Amino acid sequence: MSTFIHEDWLLQNKSAQILYHDYAKKMPIHDFHNHLTPAEIASNRQFNNMTEIWLGGDHYKWRAMRWLGIEERFITGDASDEDKFMMWAKCVPYTVGNPLYHWTHLELARYFGIHELLSEDTARGIWEKCNEKLQDPSMSTNGILKQFDVRVACTTDAPTDSLEHHQQIAKNPDIDTVVVPSFRPDRALDVVHATFKDYVQELSGSTKSGQTITTYTQFIEALGERVGYFHEQGGRVSDHGFETLPYVPANEQEVSFIFSRALNGETLSQEEIHKHQSFTMLHLAGFYHQYGWVMQLHIGAIRNNNERMFKLLGRDTGYDSILDYDLARSLNAFLNQLEQFNQLPKTIIYTLNPTQYEMIASAIGNFQAAGIRGKVQMGSGWWFHDQKDGMIRQLTALSSIGLMSTFVGMLTDSRSFLSFTRHEYFRRILCNLMGTWIEEGELPSDFTFIGGIIEDICYNNAKQYFDIRGLSV
Ligand SMILES: O=C[C@H](O)[C@@H](O)[C@@H](O)[C@H](O)C(=O)O
Predict the structure, then answer these.
(1) Looking at the predicted structure, is the pLDDT value of residue 1 above 90?
(2) Confidence class of residue 470 from pLDDT cuts 50, 70 and 90?
(3) What is the domain extent for residue 161?
(4) CA 184 to ligand 1: nearest atom
(5) What is the distance in A from the centroid of ligand 1 to the CA of 383?
(6) pTM, whole model, 2 decimals?
(7) Does residue 407 share a domain with residue 300?
(8) Ligand 1 pocket, residue 58 CB under 6 Å
(9) DSSP 3-state helix, strand, coil percentages of the chain (rounded to 5)?
(10) CA–CA distance, 261 with 283 (Å, rounded to integer)
(11) ipTM of this predicted complex?
(12) Which of the listed residues 139, 171, 196 is the one where a domain comes to its end?
């Protein structure tokens, strides 16, 4: 009997199989956005068991378990690692149709050589086999990066981070992967949050002078200094998470006043919040442009919706979802404002709302520029759309309205070292889509040509676009 994850899995025709096996499969990985922990890479962490590496931090699995009515103690609570794994195994058969079912079995197959389907019945054997394999040097963090030929990994880091772990990684001759930080200044834009004042203090502490920030000008200077520091440490990417991307024009004087009111803990109007955010984003984008960075905008998540659970577990624990809102005007206005002053950096826009794919694909066509292929990009299917249907929708919108040949492709966006197979998943779906176009006569059956485009989307485009120092290929 053939296994579920077989050689031609998801490749439904001959052309798709050729594209995947002869072109996509061999390409290295350029993982330009993830949430891996630099400290774990620096210490070359070896995981004790499957729960540690697979279930800890994975809010996708947690949501599915809650959906099945599992008690929280088996999800994020105090149950033993073994009991948590057994409970997850029991849930897996009921995830059919959800990407979790695919991801789970693809990860078991590629990392552990396990082709049995995970369920209550097979759980014990799989737990033991995987835990044993996890002790192998090939399964340490560095072992995994090597196995999957991960040439670049961009972690997600606070502007105030010392980046000491990145420095250790860079000095370690055993780590071939170029691991660089991404600058994620969400808290700098969150003037309404009760901790904004503490954040500004933290930011002051991270600058060379350590001088207390009291004015907006000092605040922007401090952020600029930290962008410079990240750059020195190899950073070439920033990342922002927005509910919506407001764009409300403002001037320095107004925003300075709003900033000092925020520092005093005064209540700000929605308009003031948006003005501060818009103006600060223009400054930040200017820095990214100056350093030749890529600005990533993740837009459209409504977060921490379950207050009771937020109080218990905090953020990123599986209580975020898709926001509906208007984006076209503010997105165009924001990009336009940067473009007017020649300050628009290379930009990737991800949306959590797939009804916006066509709109975004059309908007980015307004801001492409000489000398850079696909300067403004639409990011791959993000989060709830990091699955077959989501990827096909994103690729279809991008290819119909823009140029898919310039697309920088896939990233894991994951907190787990077992997620590198997401690239394989994406590649199979991409090859199946283009292979089907060949079979249906919509593309020529010229494999060198179409295969070359596949190789570009899998790796070459990202390598060229991000231009991360030290890349050896
Ligand atoms: O795929 C889902 C992601 O990891 C999600 O948790 C992140 O994208 C995170 O919310 C972020 O804002 O960076």
Answers:
(1) no
(2) low
(3) 14-38+147-466
(4) 13
(5) 7
(6) 0.96
(7) yes
(8) no
(9) 55, 10, 35
(10) 20
(11) 0.94
(12) 139
